[in-house]
Amino acid sequence: MRKYLFGSGLLSSVMSGMTLLRSLRSNDGFTWRQALAWLSWGITLALAIGSIVDIYRAGRGHVVAEDSPVDGDEQKLLRRRLRK
Prior knowledge:
By secondary structure, this protein is mostly helical. The protein has one domain. Helix content is 69%, strand content 0%. It has helices spanning 2-5, 8-23, 32-59, 74-83.
């Protein structure tokens, strides 16, 4: 569980979300730049969660999509999990 929660993608996404929440406290109105920042944050969070799901599935021996960063490493991840 620790390797998923403290992954760099998820950690940076949470930190940028906290920064965006702090920016809402200002008295400035909601601008198009803030809208783009929130959109970017949502995409980053979705990609981080998607990579966690791929690593989890590959570690269980399931086939992952070809565009996944762990594509082709399923057997190695499964062996590592079974060794524990």
